[in-house]
User: Which sequence fits this backbone?
């Protein structure tokens, strides 16, 4: 793999469009947004708008990919709830040298992709910054944030080169397991607190009871992280609280946006993962169990 020229985006939503809108401005590459047939039809009809401007994306469904070359890089930015099914939409574009870069929440996406495409390089990645706001096919973001990536060195260097050339903020942590858990603990706390109490950042920042609830969720996640030999969990919680208190008060996490829109949330990727792992280690997680039960109950009523 000499360079990354054919880029495929799987998941043209609140996270996926952040690198895509910059990559679309680069010369010498092609960027294709892959999706199922019905979603591609809607995208072509309605378009995807980022900060008020329509993105010049090319869309393709699996049945239309016969004459296309294999992807050099597939950026996966779907919801965790749809990941397994969505991967079938890029199967026709997956060659032996295709590299996957998951940008999903949670800590298991690379495992899911690796099981589906065991012969391919699967990196690890996530976005940390101000939350995007998505309303149907309109997405807004203020540009604050960084993509953190790790994995196989050669492929990682190519991604770093590509993102840097496009002006995309990218960081390569020395310990990606620790970095992934740092973001995960933050998500377990703030995403779930906001979804549980229908409270945006400002409401959480002003209410000590909500901040305490958020911290208790993170403490349970940190206990599981330590059981999995992840170090520095106390510092992770302190860093997470700093992030939470520094966010714009009118901002909402993606999970709160999901519950307000009555969409399926990523509760299984957060509390669900914590609860399953905690049982394996004999760790009590009453706060995460409570959130899991309540959000699951609500979603069944949609």
Assistant:
């Amino acid at each position: 793999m000499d360079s990354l020229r054919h880029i495929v985006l799987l998941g043209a939503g609140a996270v996926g469009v952040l690198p895509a809108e910059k990559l679309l401005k680069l010369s010498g590459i092609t960027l294709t947004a892959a999706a199922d047939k019905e979603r591609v039809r809607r995208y072509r009809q309605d378009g995807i708008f980022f900060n008020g401007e329509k993105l010049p994306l090319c869309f393709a469904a699996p049945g239309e990919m016969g004459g296309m070359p294999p992807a050099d890089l597939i950026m996966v930015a779907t919801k965790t709830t749809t990941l397994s099914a969505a991967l079938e939409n890029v199967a026709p574009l997956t060659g032996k040298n295709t590299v996957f870069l998951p940008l999903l929440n949670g800590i298991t996406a690379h495992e899911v992709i690796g099981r589906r495409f065991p012969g391919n390089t699967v990196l690890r990645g996530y976005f940390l910054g101000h939350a995007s706001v998505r309303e149907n096919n309109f997405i807004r973001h203020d540009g604050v944030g960084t993509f953190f990536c790790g994995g196989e060195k050669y492929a990682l260097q190519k991604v770093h080169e590509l993102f840097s050339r496009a002006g995309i903020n990218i960081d390569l942590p020395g310990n990606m397991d620790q970095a992934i858990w740092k973001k995960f603990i933050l998500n377990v706390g703030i995403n779930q607190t906001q979804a549980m109490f229908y409270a945006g950042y400002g409401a959480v920042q002003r209410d000590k009871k909500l901040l305490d609830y958020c911290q208790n969720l993170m403490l349970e996640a940190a206990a599981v992280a330590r059981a999995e030999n992840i170090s520095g969990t106390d510092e992770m919680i302190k860093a997470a609280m700093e992030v939470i208190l520094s966010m714009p008060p009118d901002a909402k996490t993606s999970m709160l946006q999901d519950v307000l829109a009555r969409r399926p949330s990523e509760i299984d990727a957060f509390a669900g993962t914590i609860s399953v792992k905690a049982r394996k280690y004999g760790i009590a997680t009453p706060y995460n169990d409570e959130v899991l039960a309540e959000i699951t109950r609500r979603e069944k009523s949609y």
Observations:
- The chain has two domains: 6-171, 176-301.
- The first strand starts at residue 6 and ends at 10.
